[in-house]
Amino acid sequence: MRRLPAAVAVGALLVTVTACGSSDGSGSSDGSSSGGTTKVKVGVIPIVDVAPLYLGQKKGFFKKQGLELEMTLAQGGAAIVPGVASGQFSFGFSNSTSLMVAQSNNVPVKVVTNGIASTGVQGKDFGALVVKGDSSLKSADQLEGKKVAINTLKNINETAVRESVRKAGGDPDKVRFVELAFDQMPAALDGGQIDAAMVVEPALATVKSQGGREIASPLVDVAPNLTVAMYFTSTSYASQHPDVVKKFKAAAAESLAYADAHPDEARAVVTTYTKIPAAVLAKVTLPAWPAEPDRASLDALEKLGQDDGLFKTAPDLDKLLP
Q1: Which of 222, 242, 273 is the last residue of a domain?
Q2: Entry pTM
Q3: Would you give the end-to-end CA distance of the chain in angstroms?
Q4: What is the CATH number of the domain that holds 13?
Q5: What are phi and psi of 210, to 5 degrees?
């Protein structure tokens, strides 16, 4: 991967993994086109959250807008931010905290459209804090001194777990957080390498299929209907290709609405970019895919992030959001 510019390096201080996509460094910010179709590279994570994008591509929503998506997989949103800022990707999918961290560090990113939201229902969310079925742990406050896996340190899932521990009466500073990719968490939990894990679908369904159980719904604990992640671009790409950004936003909005209205099709498309078995997929809890970000929930997430020391300076949500 090519060297990131200084501004991106500052924003990437908290990035603990690198984008694991195309290594040719060719980028896509030039909006290369063929036959009237513009090909754009999009950095995504191999989780249920991005199903609408794959479904929208399959249903022709992006083609209708003259776009062809080339999806590249990464471990987490924190890895995708520098990829978008450097021009490796035209667009990216990232959790809200990663975008706030980037904005607070003056990394030139701009949200294009909503990504996903929590279901807002305790015990019935697409993300959960889980333990083995025979674990003695019953609630989040009991995680003090325990090893808890999250996909990216100092990010949204750590903030969420810390809030669950706090709300249960425990001390989140006493939790031992370790970084692990979502798809590696079920095996690590089953094998006893970790005591608990903050998983999202489809890893959540896999854990449940192994007899694991939930002890908290951290994303719900942060705020009702939490806007968990959003699609974004760089400010330079937005200024250089406003027409492409407009088309991507329109196609993404149609994709989100379609996925929300056709959950069976959303589940089915997940098999095209993950290895989840059909039997497990049928038990997956889907996230909510609303059209717009929930500002109140983002304000709550920002406050918790500040309390946890994630930002050197408070992020400007007015500049970050559409």
Answers
A1: 222
A2: 0.85
A3: 29
A4: 3.40.190.10
A5: -90, 5
